[in-house]
Design goal:
It catalyses: [(1->4)-alpha-D-glucosyl](n) + phosphate = [(1->4)-alpha-D-glucosyl](n-1) + alpha-D-glucose 1-phosphate. This protein is α/β, with parallel strands linked by helices. It binds N-[(biphenyl-4-yloxy)acetyl]-beta-D-glucopyranosylamine.
């Protein structure tokens, strides 16, 4: 019999060093004589990986035997960032590794920063999925993530002459965290035709045939939980030609190029993450990605279920599938297809299984961001699915007609098919109709989806189909890892790190809000974090900033609705005011650094213009000797997860200033406050719940409310549009050429002056400027400011993604945790 393998686990720095050396010399076949930081990183990662893998295998085995319901989180994006620091925290041997590395002559920070980010996502939606995986494992839920193994993640951003330039992010050179499973493959079909026939019993059968086959290969990555042995699985699918390297028939008959071309076409499917936050319209390759991933994942899930030999009606008791936005909506017709075409179930029975299995999370109400696919494209690529979508729609519309006979015009409004030219499939409607629950991601947002985009559906299904799960963030990465000193300070007062598993315990630090020593330590940590960002800014941007200045930060994807333009116009306004002051008055001004960071979608010209303007303004202001440290403007290049871990702990104030009603939740707002920064924000998304938790005195809210937005927009078009006079001055300055050729910014200015100011920049400008003044005043009273920040941190317990995941588990998935056995 086989002996159970037991990894010789390191427990001392010495043993750790041995493990590192072993991996460098044998796994990597490198000599120790030229052991650089890259090699030290690799050895360290592999040493920790060994320990993760044991618990990973154990967890998977336990979950298989336990035979209870599992969660499958389908997301086209997982913005994981770096894995080593997280692995060290969860394995619990970071200090041992630190000592060991130091004996080998390395600093932990330098080794950790050798790792490339796993940047398989665009922004908030992808990072949310990563936080959810962390919480699912930490709370011992049996759960898998499913996604694509993109060869290229989100592009790297370089700023050249003030313009964004996109550079490919090839991240797989050395990735110790993934395990290829060449034995776990799924053949996925595209194109072809549907043949219908009667079987012996007289039943109509549809066969989808003559398609093109692409093979999905599984790559697995371990997802360890904190303070638990549970290690879940993230499965990424990679595409390759179904016949392997080359089509040998073609190859042997001399068609070398055709053979290679087939192979490349197949590999293109998982080649690159779309960088567009969904604006990528109608691209066949994107639809192929979506189906490829849905089909492979469902095949895998169904295969696992079938091993249990249970009846199909038990499927929803074993499987909960969560759709992260509409990107995986094809999983709905795909499961229906498997059940009726391959497993021989009747339509109604199959459909009830489908509906009980899926839940759908909506992440935006912006109409331009709602996915639609043209009927001809789906017909061409997925002919059988189009038939099924039409049948789903027919059944649904018949149901609506029966129940609302008097509302004929509702039918065209709620139809899955939009009767345009060409016809379009409305993916959000299909996702909603095929799921048992639909949730928004913050209270306001969940209310808005019920009164706007899904209004008719509330009438049809009743309000209980709709629910709210306010987003959350993992305190492991966003407090403990990003801000180790603050985490340690909190632990020293609470007596342990238990609060990292139950963030509501943070409320106990409110008792120290008047404790002199605690306050001093808290303030010192904030200063050190600001000094760290200042050093980083000098090193990579070449801009010297004073850590004593007020650090004002806005980092997120660049979008008109997020209103970075409002921020930079405010900066220009501030500059004009400073220039107009006497030197004596200037001396009383609160110095400030305005940091920006974020990527623009490559084809989003307005967003790119905003980046350009920020950089031009930065150049002019930073060079102004008269202004000096009173105002500095910094655009931080290539904002990503690992940079966020440096940037976020360094804020005094961060900006979350979307037009009310447009930002579904926001999650960086939570990260900033948890790290002892305050927020300037609109009454939008999770800002509203942050206000409820921390108290109105501890946040700077401004601007028009969501319920007034429609009227204001109407007035812009049908009343006369009056530009805010301060904003007018800002525009005059831009037009004067102070920031370079004004023509470059005319589209941006005109979107406000000429084209109706859709995002209400002018309407909110005065309120924004006034609130920034309040902030300057408030910051002068450092003691009062400190009280606000400490109080806020202590009240952030609600925003842990652990709370969030427990809500999904209870209200949507109906799954229970599976506790790992005590260590043997
Ligand atoms: C794209 C181009 C132009 C204008 C808008 C978009 C766009 C907007 C929203 C595309 C996709 C959008 O939604 C998807 C998304 O990423 N939503 C984000 O999800 C996060 C996690 O729930 C939330 O915190 C963010 O508020 C929400 O914007």
């Amino acid at each position: 019999a086989w002996k159970k393998y037991s990894a010789k686990e390191f427990t001392t720095p010495d043993e750790f060093e041995q493990a590192v050396v072993k991996h460098i010399e044998t796994t990597l076949a490198r000599s120790l004589f030229n052991c650089d930081e890259a090699a030290a990183y690799s050895g360290t990662a592999l040493a920790f990986r060994d320990r993760l893998v044991i618990e990973w295998n154990r967890t998977q085995q336990q979950q298989t035997l336990a035979d209870q319901k599992r969660v499958y989180y389908l997301s086209l994006e997982f913005l994981m960032g770096r894995a080593l620091d997280n692995a060290m925290l969860n394995v619990g041997m970071k200090d041992v590794a630190r000592k060991g590395l130091s004996e080998l002559g390395f600093r932990m920070e330098d080794i950790v920063s050798q790792e490339r980010d796993a940047a398989l996502g665009n922004g908030g939606l992808g990072r949310l999925a990563a936080c959810f995986l962390d919480s699912l494992a930490t709370l011992n839920y049996p759960a898998w993530g499913y996604a694509l193994r993109y060869k290229y993640g989100i592009f790297r951003q370089e700023i050249i002459d003030g313009y964004q330039v996109e550079v490919p992010d090839y991240w797989l050179d050395f990735n110790p965290w993934e395990f290829p499973r060449h034995d776990v493959t799924v053949d996925v079909q595209f194109y072809g035709n549907v043949r219908k026939y009667m079987d012996e019993s007289g039943k109509q059968v549809s066969v989808w045939e003559n398609g093109e086959i692409v093979t999905a290969v599984a790559y697995d990555a371990p997802v360890p939980g904190y303070g638990t042995r549970t290690t879940n699985n993230l499965r990424l699918w990679s595409s390759k030609a179904s016949h392997g390297e080359f089509d040998f028939t073609k190859f042997n008959s001399g068609e070398y190029e055709a053979s290679v071309a087939d192979q490349q076409r197949a590999e293109t499917i998982s080649a690159v993450l779309y960088p567009n936050d969904s604006l990528e319209r109608g691209k066949e390759l994107r639809l192929k990605q979506q189906y490829f991933w849905c089909a492979a994942s469902l095949y895998d899930i169904v295969r696992r279920f079938k091993k249990s030999k249970k009846a199909w009606k038990d499927f929803p008791n074993q499987v909960a599938i969560q759709l992260n936005d509409t990107h995986p909506t094809l999983a709905i017709p795909e499961l229906q297809r498997i059940l009726i075409d391959q497993e021989g179930l009747e339509w109604d029975e199959a459909w009830s299984i489908v509906q009980s299995t899926f839940g759908y999370t909506n992440h935006t109400v912006l109409p331009e961001a709602l996915e639609k696919w043209s009927v001809p494209l789906i017909q061409h690529l997925l002919p059988r699915h189009l038939q099924i979508i039409y049948d789903i729609n027919l059944n649904f519309l018949q149901y609506v007609e029966r129940n609302f006979p008097k509302e004929r015009d509702m039918l065209s409004r709620v139809s899955i098919i939009e009767e345009s030219n060409p016809k379009m499939v409305r993916m959000a409607y299909l996702a909603l109709i095929g799921s048992h629950k639909v949730n928004g991601v913050a209270e306001l947002h969940s209310d808005l989806i019920k009164t706007t985009i899904f209004k008719d559906f509330v009438k049809i299904y009743g309000p209980d189909k709709f629910t709210n799960v306010t987003n959350g963030i993992t305190p492991r990465r966003w407090l403990h890892q990003a801000n180790p000193r603050l985490s340690e300070l909190i632990a020293s007062k609470l007596g342990s790190y238990d609060y990292l598993r139950d963030l509501t315990l943070l409320h106990k630090i409110e008792a120290y809000v008047d404790d002199k020593e605690f306050r001093k330590a808290f303030q010192d940590i904030k200063y050190a974090n600001k000094a760290r960002l200042a050093a980083y800014t000098l090193e990579v941007q070449g801009i010297k900033v004073n850590p004593k200045a007020l650090f004002d930060i806005q980092v997120k994807r660049i979008h008109e609705y997020k209103r970075q333009q409002l921020n930079i116009f405010g900066v220009i306004h501030r500059y004009l005011e400073l220039k107009a002051m006497s030197p004596k008055d200037r001396n009383k001004v609160q110095p400030r650094v305005s940091f920006f960071g974020g990527k623009a979608a490559p084809g989003y010209w307005m967003a790119k213009t905003v980046i350009h303007l920020i950089n031009q303004v930065s150049k002019v202001i930073n060079a102004d000797k008269e202004i000096g440290d009173l105002l500095k403007v910094v655009f931080l290049e290539d904002y990503n997860v690992s940079k966020a871990e440096i940037i976020i702990p360094a804020s005094d104030i961060s900006e979350h200033i979307s037009t009310a009603g447009t930002e579904a939740s926001g999650t960086s707002n939570m990260k900033f406050v948890l790290n002892g920064g305050l927020v300037i924000g609109t009454c939008d998304g999770a800002n509203i719940e942050i206000t409820r938790e921390v108290g109105e005195d501890n946040i700077f809210l401004f601007g028009n409310l969501s319920e007034d937005v429609e009227d204001l927009r109407h007035q812009h078009f049908y009343g006369d549009f009056k530009l805010d006079p301060m904003l007018q001055k800002v525009f005059d300055t831009i037009k004067s050429g102070m920031f370079g050729d004004a023509g470059q910014f005319s589209a941006l200015v005109n979107s406000i002056v000429e084209h109706g100011d859709y995002y209400l920049v002018s309407d909110d400008f005065k309120s924004y400027i006034d609130t920034q003044k309040l902030i300057d005043e408030a910051y002068k009273d450092q003691e009062a400011w400190l009280t606000k920040t400490i109080t806020s941190v202590s009240r952030m317990g609600f925003f842990s993604s652990d709370r969030c995941i427990d809500e999904y588990a209870e209200m949507i998935w109906n799954v229970e945790p599976l506790t790992p056995p005590k260590q043997n």
